[in-house]
Amino acid sequence: MPEIDITLMQGLLVALCGYLLGSIPFGMVLAKVMGLGNLRDIGSGNIGATNVLRTGNKTAAFLTLAFDAGKGAVAVLVARALFGEAAAQIAGLAAFLGHLFPVWLKFQGGKGVATFLGLLLALAFPVGFAACMTWLAAAVIGRISSASALIASLCTPIWCFLFGYPVGIALTIVLAALIWWSHRTNIGRIIAGTEPKIGKKG
Q1: Which stretch of DSSP H or E encloses residue 151?
Q2: What's the pTM value of the predicted model, to 2 decimals?
Q3: Is residue 126 scored above 60 in pLDDT?
Q4: Which of 1, 27, 89, 178 measures 20 to 30 Å from 36, CA to CA?
Q5: How many CB atoms lie within 10 A of CB 119?
């Protein structure tokens, strides 16, 4: 963990702003604006880019991916610019929790993969890039988005160590644990062999 160099009030402010930014359900918003229906009734019912892709609209899926990753990155970069590294990590974690538990959707959000990758790219670009490449490699081989996310999250603390960002190891362990928790139903389907492939329509 980085040295705590912010006040309690600054930390709370950063956490609140990060959470509110992270809780914006871009997938739901884009699906509604683009006339794709209610994501809760499509595929897995998830609000993320993978489920948006199941509508058949690649543009909407890409935009969802970009915005969900972007909100994690923006939270980190703004907090770092204002208050330093500890604030950046707090904001990143808060944005991630906001995506998982958005107040606007009765705390029933997405799986957080895009937001996870976005905040990592902002925290330590080499680590984030390695995590993205890990996800991509696993996705190309297995064609299962959830399995790719699980593998990428497990590898991220290792990337922190190898790429010289040891202060991020504790945070990435917490984020990885939350990724696995949010994918608990996917894990069951992976084991059963019923998890849908990337690009399969709902």
Answers
A1: helix 145-162
A2: 0.93
A3: yes
A4: 178
A5: 33
